[in-house]
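dumping this here so i dont lose it
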C-alpha cells in the first residue's frame, strides 16, 4: 500500500470512529445510517479490488447456502440451542450428509449468519435469529426462487431489446425469463406457491420502516375533518391487508371505515384479517368503486408501473375523489438526486425486472402527480429514511 493510501485509511478511520461516536450519542436512525456509510467506505478502502470483485461474483453462492440452511432448519436449531450445536447434530435433523452441512456452516459463519464456538460447533447470531421469522423466510424464498431466475436472464433481455428502459407490463425481463406473455400478477395468480411467497414478502417489507401511522400526522391530516358517513381509508392494492391491520391497531375504529382492495387471487389468499376491514376485489385499471373516501393509500404500487400506467391508475382515483376533502397518500421511495442508497437503488432493480416498475425522485413524483391534476401537499419522510408518504390533493379549480 502506498503512503498516501495509508493516510487516506487514517482519515477514513477517523471519520468512521467520529460517526460511530455521533451515533452512540444521538441514537437516531439517521446517525446509524451515517455511521454505516462511513464504516463501509473504510472497509472498501481496505479491500483489494480483485478480492471485492470475486466476492461479489461468487455472492449468489451465499444466497444458495443460506437457502439450503433454512431448508435444513439450521436457523431454528441455532436459535434453540442453549450452548452450541455441532454440524453432525444439525445434519441429523434432516438426515443430511454431515460434510455437506459443515461446508454450508463455514459460509454462514463467514457471513455473520452463525457464530463458531469451536471447531464444528455453532451458535446463533442476530442474523440467524432473524432467519427464523416467517416473513423473512417468505422474502428469501420469493427472491431466491422467483426473482433470481429473472435477474439471471435480464442482461440477455436488454441485449435483445436494444437497452430500452422497460415499461411494458407484458414485455419485460419477467416475460423473457419465464417465457410467458401475461403480467407478473397474472403469473402469480396461476402459481399459488409463488403467490404465497410474494404476499409473505410484501408483509415482511413493512418491517424495515415503522408503520406510517406512527410518523404521519394521522389525527391532523386524516381524522380531523373526516365525515362520519364516509369510508376513511382505502388501501388500494393492499395485499393481504397488513397495512390496514396495523392502522387499525393504532387507530381502532368500527366497520365501514377501512377498505382493502386487491386482485381476486390476493383477496382469496387472505388467511386472517379483522372482519371490520372491508375486502373488495378490484382491478386498479377500472373505475374506483369507493367514492369520496377521506384517503386513498397506495403502498409500493406506483413503483410497480411506468408513468403511463400510473396515470391510468391515478385517473380512476381522481374521478372518485371529492375536491377539498379526499387525499391520495403514496408510500414509496423518494430517491435522492445524488448518492442514492442501497435500498432504493436495489429495489429499483427488483421492480424493474419484475413488473417492470421504477423508483422515483421528488422531481419525477411531482411531474407524475401534476400530470393527473394532483398537487403534492407534502413529502413526509421520517428522518434517516429515503422512503416516505407523499400526500396529494386534487388541484383546486381556482373558481370563485
Ligand atoms: C408490490 S405489491 C404491494 C402490496 C401492498 N400494498 C404492500 O405494500 O404490501 C403490489 C400489489 O398490487 C396488486 N396488483 C397488481 N395488479 C393489480 C391490479 N390490476 N388491480 C389490483 N391490484 C393489483 C398485487 O396483487 C399486489 O398485492
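and the seq i came up w/
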Amino acid at each position: 500500500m502506498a503512503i498516501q493510501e495509508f493516510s487516506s485509511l487514517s482519515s477514513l478511520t477517523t471519520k468512521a470512529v467520529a460517526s460511530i461516536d455521533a451515533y452512540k450519542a444521538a441514537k437516531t436512525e439517521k446517525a446509524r445510517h451515517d455511521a454505516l456509510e462511513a464504516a463501509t467506505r473504510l472497509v472498501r478502502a481496505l479491500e483489494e479490488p480483485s478480492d471485492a470483485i470475486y466476492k461479489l461474483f461468487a455472492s449468489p453462492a451465499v444466497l444458495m447456502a443460506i437457502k439450503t440452511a433454512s431448508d435444513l432448519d439450521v436457523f431454528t436449531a441455532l436459535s434453540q440451542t442453549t450452548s452450541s450445536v455441532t454440524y453432525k447434530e444439525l445434519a441429523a435433523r434432516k438426515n443430511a450428509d454431515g460434510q455437506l452441512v459443515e461446508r454450508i456452516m463455514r459460509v454462514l459463519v463467514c457471513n455473520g449468519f452463525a457464530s463458531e464456538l469451536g471447531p464444528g460447533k455453532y451458535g446463533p447470531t442476530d442474523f440467524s435469529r432473524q432467519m427464523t421469522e416467517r416473513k423473512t423466510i417468505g422474502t428469501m424464498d420469493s427472491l431466491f426462487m422467483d426473482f433470481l431466475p429473472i435477474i439471471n436472464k435480464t442482461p440477455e433481455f436488454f441485449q435483445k431489446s436494444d437497452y430500452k428502459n422497460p415499461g411494458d407490463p407484458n414485455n419485460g425481463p419477467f416475460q423473457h425469463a419465464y417465457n410467458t406473455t401475461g403480467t407478473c400478477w397474472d403469473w402469480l395468480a396461476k402459481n399459488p406457491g409463488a403467490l404465497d411467497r410474494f404476499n409473505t414478502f410484501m408483509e415482511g417489507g413493512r418491517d424495515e420502516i415503522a408503520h406510517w401511522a406512527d410518523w404521519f400526522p394521522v389525527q391532523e391530516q386524516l381524522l380531523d375533518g373526516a365525515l362520519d358517513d364516509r369510508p376513511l381509508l382505502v388501501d388500494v392494492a393492499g395485499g393481504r391487508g397488513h397495512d390496514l391491520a396495523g392502522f387499525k391497531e393504532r387507530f381502532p375504529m368500527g366497520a365501514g371505515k377501512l377498505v382493502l382492495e386487491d386482485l381476486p387471487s390476493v383477496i382469496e389468499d387472505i388467511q386472517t384479517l379483522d372482519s371490520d376491514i372491508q375486502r373488495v376485489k378490484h382491478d386498479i385499471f377500472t373505475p374506483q368503486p369507493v367514492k369520496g373516501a377521506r384517503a386513498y393509500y397506495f403502498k409500493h404500487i406506483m413503483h410497480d408501473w411506468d408513468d403511463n400506467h400510473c396515470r391510468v391508475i391515478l385517473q380512476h382515483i381522481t374521478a372518485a375523489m371529492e375536491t377539498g376533502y379526499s387525499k391520495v397518500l403514496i408510500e414509496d421511495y423518494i430517491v435522492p438526486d445524488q448518492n442514492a442508497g442501497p435500498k432504493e437503488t436495489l429495489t429499483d432493480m427488483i421492480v424493474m425486472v419484475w413488473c417492470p416498475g421504477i423508483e422515483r425522485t421528488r422531481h419525477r413524483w411531482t411531474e407524475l402527480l401534476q400530470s393527473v391534476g394532483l398537487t403534492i401537499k407534502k413529502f413526509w419522510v421520517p428522518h434517516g429514511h429515503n422512503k416516505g408518504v407523499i400526500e396529494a390533493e386534487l388541484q383546486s379549480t381556482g373558481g370563485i
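The first helix runs from residue 3 to 26.
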